[in-house]
Amino acid sequence: MNLSLPDQTMHSSSESCLEDDKPEVILPCFRRNMHEDPLAAYSNGSIISQLLRKTIHNKRAIDDNHFYLSNSVAAADSGQEDESSVSSKDSTIEAVSPSDHVSTGVSPEGDHPLPDHLKAKRARVENIIRVMAGSPNSRQHCDGERCDTDAREMREARESCRENKRKQRLPQHQEHKEECHKLKEQLHSMQRLLRQLQEKFLQVYSQEDPEFIVREAAGAVSEHDIIGNSTDACYIKSQNLQETLKQELSKAVNDCIDRVFKKVSSSTDMDISPQQRVCSTPEMQISLGADRKSLAPDHSQAEEMSKSRSSELCESSEAQTSQDQTEALSLVVRKPPVTQVSSVTPTVKRPYAVHQTPFQFSYTPPLHESHILEHLLKYGPHSNFGALPCMPPSMDRTSPDSVDLSWDAVAMRSKVTSSHFGHHHRPSSMGAVGVDGLCLPHVKMESGELQSLAERNPYMSLNISFEGLTPSHLKKAKLMFFYTRYPSSNVLKTFFPDVKFNRCITSQLIKWFSNFREFYYIQMEKFARQAIAEGVRDVKDITVSRDSELFRALNMHYNKANDFHVPDRFLEVAEITLHEFYNAISATKDSDSSWKKAIYKVICKLDSEIPEEFKTSSYL
DNA sequence: TATTCTCCTG
DNA sequence: CAGGAGAATA
């Protein structure tokens, strides 16, 4: 394909529609429309159709290697019709030009002034189309190196061109009408949302403190200028918003729990499987946002697993109340009678409710409301609550205070995870009501009951299987790294006997060691380069002892508490690795992108036996 | 095709 | 350290 369009052509076709610097091409009236009053351009000049047509022309010109653009496009840009050049040279677009005239006259908006929202929207649409129109030409400025990309882009351009053609065949005025209609609808829906939000605020505040209505409403919904402006109560406003959200959420949650409990209590006599019974308790529904896609059911969990599992119930319920749950959920039983589920929550249409959040499962507010709430939660003052990241419920998020459990697992996890996640928050920070209510049922539940529930519930087991890796395991893995850099999965299974292995766990452990290696090799490279920079001439001058800075760095990473005696062999391996890096870098092998692979190959053979005591589950 | 590894990013 | 992308490997 010949891309060597004359420079002049490119300029006239690409820049003239994008920039102001071609006054000789763009008529003043058109420029005013484009740059000063996009709305007017929209309603009067059908700029969109013109630009679309120009796009088509440009792209066709590229495709067919036609060089007639400079004239016709310039004319088109000017806003004046050049039908002869259009229709005579490209009969496939014949529908375009006449419709321009039609649309110009039958513009649905006519002369009516439009809201600013609409103007802005329209401006954006036009901008997008301008970019579309300009891109294929600007591409022509590139040099020959990008021919491949260009070819691909050209194909895309052709497709896009076809798309545009299809659109062009629609009567323009109809298109405009539709567009206007859509915009209007959007505007209306936004106004509706605003009103609803406003009402919500008023309603809530009136319950709390009638005196606040005036000030708060004015501040929160200032756009509508309900009463006036208030700028002096920002802090109080935030506080109130916080409390309000908490109350609203808590109310909704409590309500749903009540309803679910009622339903459950009335249906426990029904003929349902143990799993079903288990899943029917609210805390299960809430907390079972398990990673269902992997992991097989596990009925033989160790006792401590079951204990930590119970802590998960509360933890995950906390973490998930408001976040978006995109993960497949296991909150519904395997073979639930549809009526049973839907009778509890009519909003849940699917018996296997895959994408329902635990929260939504029981309480699904109208879409707009939830959106508003979501937005407020995300960006509002209560970010701690709202911005809970989308992490699997099995991942660490603890609320030890919310459940009075004395199990070691809980305590341990709480301790570690609270330091692990900088933004960990205690329930107390969630407000008096908060989501603690969600955890309440746990407190009332006997530990034995919980345990048996957990053992009978495959989905919980999934959760816990994944949960099997604790910070203790991480610490142990780090120490094992002193012996083995590339442990096989068999080794891992052997040395983590207390972990119920599955694909997920294995991958996780492998990932850990991968991370360990990453740090290890980064340090090696760093110190090797440092040695070279310091002018070390001989590899033999590089040693790794316990006094070495390198060792200290590694020890700090894998043995932070420094309560483990690092085997000498590790020092040797570290030294060998350092030498490898030194040699490779000295030989400027690092210019090769895969120069480290040779080193990895050497190091992976240097794994040594891991002491037996690591095999005991109680190690550490 | 699934798994593993490295690299990169947050 | 987790997660994702991409390449290598089985």
UniProtKB/TrEMBL annotation:
<dbReference type="GO" id="GO:0048646">
    <property type="term" value="P:anatomical structure formation involved in morphogenesis"/>
</dbReference>
<keyword id="KW-0804">Transcription</keyword>
<protein>
    <recommendedName>
        <fullName>Prospero domain-containing protein</fullName>
    </recommendedName>
</protein>
<dbReference type="GO" id="GO:0000978">
    <property type="term" value="F:RNA polymerase II cis-regulatory region sequence-specific DNA binding"/>
</dbReference>
<dbReference type="GO" id="GO:0007417">
    <property type="term" value="P:central nervous system development"/>
</dbReference>
<dbReference type="GO" id="GO:0048598">
    <property type="term" value="P:embryonic morphogenesis"/>
</dbReference>
<keyword id="KW-0371">Homeobox</keyword>
<feature type="compositionally biased region" description="Polar residues">
    <location>
        <begin position="319"/>
        <end position="328"/>
    </location>
</feature>
<keyword id="KW-0805">Transcription regulation</keyword>
<feature type="region of interest" description="Disordered">
    <location>
        <begin position="159"/>
        <end position="178"/>
    </location>
</feature>
<dbReference type="GO" id="GO:0000981">
    <property type="term" value="F:DNA-binding transcription factor activity, RNA polymerase II-specific"/>
</dbReference>
<dbReference type="GO" id="GO:0060042">
    <property type="term" value="P:retina morphogenesis in camera-type eye"/>
</dbReference>
<dbReference type="InterPro" id="IPR039350">
    <property type="entry name" value="Prospero_homeodomain"/>
</dbReference>
<dbReference type="GO" id="GO:0070365">
    <property type="term" value="P:hepatocyte differentiation"/>
</dbReference>
<dbReference type="Pfam" id="PF05044">
    <property type="entry name" value="HPD"/>
</dbReference>
<dbReference type="GO" id="GO:0031016">
    <property type="term" value="P:pancreas development"/>
</dbReference>
<dbReference type="InterPro" id="IPR037131">
    <property type="entry name" value="Homeo_prospero_dom_sf"/>
</dbReference>
<feature type="region of interest" description="Disordered">
    <location>
        <begin position="75"/>
        <end position="116"/>
    </location>
</feature>
<dbReference type="InterPro" id="IPR023082">
    <property type="entry name" value="Homeo_prospero_dom"/>
</dbReference>
<feature type="domain" description="Prospero">
    <location>
        <begin position="466"/>
        <end position="620"/>
    </location>
</feature>
<dbReference type="InterPro" id="IPR009057">
    <property type="entry name" value="Homeodomain-like_sf"/>
</dbReference>
<keyword id="KW-0539">Nucleus</keyword>
<dbReference type="GO" id="GO:0001945">
    <property type="term" value="P:lymph vessel development"/>
</dbReference>
<feature type="compositionally biased region" description="Basic and acidic residues">
    <location>
        <begin position="290"/>
        <end position="312"/>
    </location>
</feature>
<keyword id="KW-0238">DNA-binding</keyword>
<dbReference type="GO" id="GO:0005737">
    <property type="term" value="C:cytoplasm"/>
</dbReference>
<dbReference type="GO" id="GO:0070309">
    <property type="term" value="P:lens fiber cell morphogenesis"/>
</dbReference>
<dbReference type="GO" id="GO:0005634">
    <property type="term" value="C:nucleus"/>
</dbReference>
<dbReference type="GO" id="GO:0035295">
    <property type="term" value="P:tube development"/>
</dbReference>
<feature type="region of interest" description="Disordered">
    <location>
        <begin position="290"/>
        <end position="330"/>
    </location>
</feature>
